[in-house]
Amino acid sequence: MKVCIDPGHGMSNRQMGIFDPGATHVENGFLFREADIALRYGLALKDALRASGVEVFMTRDDATDHAPVGRRATMARNAGCTVLVSLHLNDFDDDSANGLEVLFRDADDRSLAQRLQSELLEVTGLRDRKIKQRNDLAVLKFDGTAVLIELGFIANDGDRAKLLDAQIRDAAVHRIAAVVMAHAAAPA
Ligand SMILES: [Zn+2]
Fold first, then answer.
1. Interatomic CA distance for residues 62 and 64, integer angstroms
2. How far is the CA of 21 from the centre of ligand 1 (A)?
3. Residue 187 predicted with pLDDT over 90
């Protein structure tokens, strides 16, 4: 098994040479960017998987790697991945919106999405927004197992505090790694 980790947004995501920060939020003069938080989760997940002997491919390792959103599924396939995990944060006009959700496209991936949803709710304490089937997301157009985790809402103070907490991040990525490995060993 080789897992593609896709930290959402970043350089050339929507337009070549332009950095796409994803959702942003300013609090006390500090700018929080979805692209940065997703990358931090991605790199931590890479370490967790590699520590368990799982091969990993990253669609981007930093803020300068070019990763057009329409090419990410192809990049994962070309790298020989059979599983793709995309990491994002949610955003909404109303800062009270909160919670975690896992998105998937193929019916085959529903059980993995549900398992990730349940386990991540347990370690983060975030609100359950339920799993959702989505056919319109470019990154999920991957001919293998693919899920997109919306970790929480960047503009919600409670969600953001949790997502920036290193202990929660560590627990979350280890749980993602364990669920992905268990699914690969025995697909439900
Ligand atoms: Zn996003």
1. 6
2. 9
3. no
Q: Which range marks the domain in which residue 142 is found?
A: 2-185
State the CATH number of the domain containing residue 136: 3.40.630.40
CA of 177 from ligand 1 middle (Å) equals 21
Query: How many Å is the Cα radius of gyration of the chain?
Result: 15
Specify the number of domains making up the chain.
1
**Ligand 1 midpoint to CA 23 (Å):** 7
Q: What is the mean pLDDT of residues 120-148?
A: 97
Read off the pLDDT of residues 79-99 as tens digits, 9 standing for 90 and up: 999 999 999 999 988 899 999
DSSP assignment of 61-96: SSSSS---GGGHHHHHHHTT-SEEEEEEEE--SSTT
Residue 188's pLDDT is 64
Average pLDDT, the chain: 96
DSSP 165-179: -HHHHHHHHHHHHHH
Using CB atoms within 10 Å of the CB of residue 70, give its burial: 0 to 12 exposed, 13 to 18 middle, 19+ buried. exposed
Tokens standing for residue 25: 């939020």
